[in-house]
Design a protein that fits this description.
The chain is mostly helical. Helices cover 82% and strands 0% of the residues.
């Protein structure tokens, strides 16, 4: 039930929030870059550094999206 509500809120944000769509697109792009690196049998030192950078950036974006989801899922307070 909770996942369904989260999915509905996420769909709403994707439809209505440019910021959320941008964050999601950046996250997806980084995910593709990470998959490409992880598909290699051996990473150079520079690629290892890039892998760590991508993972940190993905996490930062996910945290931002989760914060937006949390704000959107709270009941609106009436002043």
């Amino acid at each position: 039930m909770e996942n369904q509500i989260q999915d509905e809120i996420k769909a709403h944000l994707m439809a209505t929030s440019d910021e959320f769509r941008t964050l999601a697109a950046e996250h997806a792009q980084l995910h593709k870059q990470l998959e490409a690196l992880e598909a290699k049998s051996h990473l150079s030192e520079q690629e290892q550094v890039e892998e760590v950078r991508i993972k940190k950036q993905k996490l930062r974006l996910k945290d931002q999206m989760n914060a937006m989801l949390a704000r959107s899922s709270r009941p609106q307070q009436v002043a």
